[in-house]
Write a structure and sequence with these properties.
heterotrimer, A mainly alpha (290), B alpha/beta (235), C mainly alpha (322), B: six-stranded mixed β-sheet, 10 strands, C: mainly alpha, two-stranded antiparallel ribbon, 15 helices, globular
Chain lengths: 290, 235, 322
């Protein structure tokens, strides 16, 4: 093992940057779970869709990804809203596995749509390239940009949840739907918003991911596993936990890739997830469910 | 029969059970009462192994059962019902009755199940899915089901809750009949007249520990018990 | 007609098919049999026990690789190699199940999915044994009849086992776990053991099927051995046919195959979407599957009749018909 502060520092920075991105990836999933207690199996596909939408904006219309991102998020917000309104509302409150299966079926439909519209090739958005030297460390510009944007969006979301009326309504619904109703919160509309928001955040994550990683329409399943691992490790339903989990995962993946093998870097997420599920199911910051 | 000593359970900062100690005599119906949140159901959970205690000992028929898994406790002859009846919804009543029974031939098991269903008056529903039963019927089925295991001690968590007076009386009568045959019961409930009339001994819990124990009429007059329920009298 | 005779006739009929069918038909039937077998195995841990697994393909792949390695490197005959594949899968499922079955609901589902992804990665990385991404090449197979019979045998065994499960107290225990695991615990059911037994059963048969599959296609690589598509097909087949029933997996498997032949062969580009739509439609409109719909129409006898029959015999005046 090389004990070299520069190396470890470099890896740490990369890990943190990746973690920040993963945090955004998982944020949407975590919100949906927190409010509706449903694991949206189609989240990975929504992420992918958002990413490809931005890709299309860049390659077909020449729009810079960061400019296309809000549009992609808006479109996916609408998609999420519609899905919640016409599909998810029907399975909520029933068997818990019904919702999982429905979102699973949904994910397949979206994959197919993606394949038909965009083809099966792996794409990315190499709009930014080159590196920066900051304090003696090398930072790829694309990663840095993606990381900063992801952090900005995450902070904005947390602020939204904390300080706006709608955000408070969402948190209230997440904690106690029945009580929220009696306080005058339109719980159904809140759910629509949350699912849309989850999709929008996913779209943002997808757009940013495409700046640094190649993706194809079938990447969704790997993404959902990553996102799921993040919120399991960090603690379901806890936003802060999600961020912490993302950080842990990002760092673990980078270090694992470097010191063991690239293959095992990817597997780190699943391994960590399984470990947490078995040893401390509540996750790092989650609420123990018993 | 059942000896509980110094049972403790903390959930985070909350002491749900705080040094509970009591002993049950065999063949007796004992009531466990106390204000909401006094730790009664948690005590049940600790006895049956659903929850691990932070401290304390549970001894059943001379055997230390502290920390055993629920299924082990059940197999030792200690049964339990829940506040909200838990049945196997997609299975028929008869299947509910027989699913957990291992001993005996199928014929014998079905025979006993039908007898018990007859005992609670639900024979006509033997082949109905459990999800189709009314609330009162579910409570009866849950009772009959736990009796299939031939338990010597049964912990009943609010058997009379949400049940109309006639049915409650019917349940109480059956408990008495079973007690005559030697089964011991520990009953949590809030229906005071019914449970005081049914039980020989009453245990009162407050804030996680047992604050009084004795015959119903003695407990009723006990100032500590009154204080637990109604608060301290103003001078 | 006495049951044994009926079963014998059906098996005989099914077994006689290769005598009249050509290789193309046999291929289709082999595929049908394999997915039906996988469906039956999935049905045990997921349909009956209620632990929906999205990663049973892990054991399929283990079986495929085990058989392939035994055939290539030790020249073991393929039936024995397939059986060994099943045995290894079963052995592996004990510690894996011990760990994974602690998870409930969606955590178990996704945990198993993660497991299958890890398995695929291991297959890529463990080059000395698996030859990594290049895959393992087996001798070509010309006689499909033996493959067909092997697959059918496995399916027949699974139908038999499921039928036994449906009429036994062990089956009731599994259903109890599905309906209310905590409640079952409190009634004295050793749920940990029962779950594990179901899990091992539903790992052994995919292992065997994987071995036969490896021999059939003469090639094993990480992607095909651990393909999520395999899990998907089994899951959809059981959901469609009816989880927790004896005939559900068969009905679902056959229906899916028919759909594949007539619908998706014509529209290959929306194959995945149709699968997804099928899942959504089944969950929303046919939550108990086709078997239940058939049962309500009277085309199929209700399952788990053994208790009903016993009760009727013992108290003919009191036990009411359902």
């Amino acid at each position: 093992m090389l004990w070299e502060p520069t190396l470890w520092g470099q890896l740490l920075i990369h890990g943190v940057m990746l973690g920040g991105l993963y945090g955004l990836l998982a944020l949407g999933l975590n919100l949906v779970f927190g409010v509706m207690r449903v694991i949206n199996f189609a989240h990975g596909e929504l992420v992918m869709l958002g990413g490809f939408f931005t890709f299309w904006g860049y390659t077909t219309l020449g729009i810079h990804p960061l400019v296309a991102l809000p549009f992609s998020a808006a479109v996916l917000f609408g998609v999420g809203w519609v899905l919640q309104r016409f599909l998810m509302e029907r399975v909520l409150g029933g068997q818990p596995m019904a919702a999982l299966l429905v979102t699973f079926g949904l994910s397949l439909i979206i994959i197919n749509v993606g394949l038909l519209v965009f083809g099966a090739d792996i794409r990315s958005i190499p709009v930014v390239s080159g590196t920066l030297r900051v304090a003696g460390f090398v930072i790829p510009k694309a990663r840095g940009l993606a990381f900063l944007t992801a952090m900005a969006l995450t902070v904005a979301t947390v602020a939204f949840l904390r300080w706006t009326a709608l955000g408070r309504a969402i948190r209230a619904t997440a904690q106690h739907p029945e009580v929220a109703i009696t306080c005058g919160v339109d719980v159904r509309r809140t759910r629509l918003v949350v699912f849309g928001l989850g999709a929008a955040l996913g779209a943002a994550a997808g757009s940013l991911l495409m700046l640094i990683l190649p993706m194809d329409p079938q990447s969704g399943s790997l993404l959902i596993l990553k996102a799921f691992a993040v919120i399991i490790v960090g603690g379901l339903g806890s936003v802060a936990g999600g961020l912490l989990g993302a950080l842990v995962l990002g760092i673990a993946e980078v270090f694992g890739s470097f010191f063991i093998a690239t293959v095992f870097g990817e597997v780190m997420a699943y391994v960590l997830m399984l470990l947490v599920l078995l040893v401390r199911p509540a996750g790092l910051l989650g609420i123990a469910e018993r | 029969m059942l000896h509980v000593e110094g049972l403790e359970k903390r959930f985070g900062g909350l002491r749900a059970v705080n040094g509970a100690t009591f002993h049950l005599q065999p063949g007796v119906i004992t009531a466990l009462i106390g204000p909401n949140g006094s730790g009664k159901t948690t005590t049940f959970d600790l006895i049956t192994g659903n929850v691990r205690p932070n401290a304390g000992v549970v001894r059943f028929e001379g055997r230390d059962i502290t920390g055993l898994s629920p299924w082990q406790v059940a197999r030792l002859g200690l049964g339990r019902t829940f506040q909200l009846p838990r049945l196997f919804g997609e299975m028929t009543v008869l299947e509910n009755m027989t699913a957990a029974v291992r001993e005996g031939t199928l014929r014998e098991v079905v025979r006993r199940a039908l007898d018990l269903l007859d005992f609670v008056g639900l024979t006509a529903h033997a082949n109905a899915p459990a999800s189709s039963l009314s609330y009162g019927q579910r409570k009866l089925t849950e009772l009959a089901r736990v009796l299939m295991l031939r338990p010597r001690l049964v912990l009943l968590d609010e058997p009379f809750a949400g049940v109309n007076p006639t049915l409650a009386r019917a349940i109480a009568d059956r408990l008495l009949a079973l007690q005559q045959q030697g089964t011991t019961f520990l009953v949590i409930d809030h229906d005071m007249p019914l449970v005081m009339g049914l039980a020989e001994t009453v245990l009162v819990m407050d804030m996680g520990s047992v604050i009084a124990e004795g015959a119903p009429k003695d407990v009723r007059e006990d100032p500590r018990v009154r204080e637990a329920y109604f608060g301290r009298a103003r001078q | 007609m006495p049951r044994a005779l009926l079963v014998g006739l059906v098996l005989g009929g099914v077994g006689a098919v290769p005598l009249v069918a050509n290789n193309y038909v046999l291929s289709v039937l082999i595929s049908l049999a394999m997915f039906t077998g996988l469906a039956y195995a999935w049905n045990i841990i997921s349909g009956y026990t209620g632990y929906l697994s999205f990663g049973q393909v892990t054991f399929f792949g283990v079986g495929a690789y085990t058989a392939a390695v035994l055939i290539i490197k030790l020249h073991v005959a393929w039936p024995l190699a397939s059986l060994a594949g099943g045995v290894l899968a079963a052995l592996l499922s004990v510690p894996l199940g011990w760990i994974m079955l602690r998870l409930r609901g969606p955590y178990f589902a996704i945990g198993m999915l993660g497991l299958s992804r890890i398995a695929e990665r291991i297959a890529f990385a463990w080059e000395p044994v698996t030859d990594g991404g290049r895959g393992l090449y087996l001798p070509a197979v010309l006689d499909l009849r033996a493959v067909y019979w092997a697959m059918v045998l496995v399916v027949a065994a699974l139908v038999g086992i499921t039928s036994f499960l449906d009429n036994s107290r062990f089956g009731l225990r599994l259903l109890a776990i599905r309906e209310d695991e905590g409640g079952a615990d409190n009634l004295g059911v050793n749920t940990t053991l029962a779950k594990l037994q179901a899990f091992v059963l539903s790992a052994f048969f995919p292992g065997v099927l994987g071995g036969i599959y490896a021999w059939h296609v003469s090639y094993v690589d990480p992607v095909t051995a651990f393909a999520t598509q395999v899990d998907l097909t089994a899951v959809v087949a059981v959901l469609l046919g009816g989880a927790g029933t004896v005939w559900g997996p068969l009905i679902g498997g056959v229906t899916l195959s028919l759909l594949a032949e007539f619908l998706w062969a014509r529209f290959p580009f929306i194959h995945t979407a149709l699968f997804g739509a099928l899942v959504v439609a089944t969950v929303l409109f046919l939550p108990k599957g086709l078997a239940d719909a058939f049962r309500r129409r009277g085309w199929l006898a209700p399952g788990r009749a053994f208790l009903r029959r016993l009760a009727a015999r013992q108290a003919p005046l009191e036990a009411a018909p359902e």
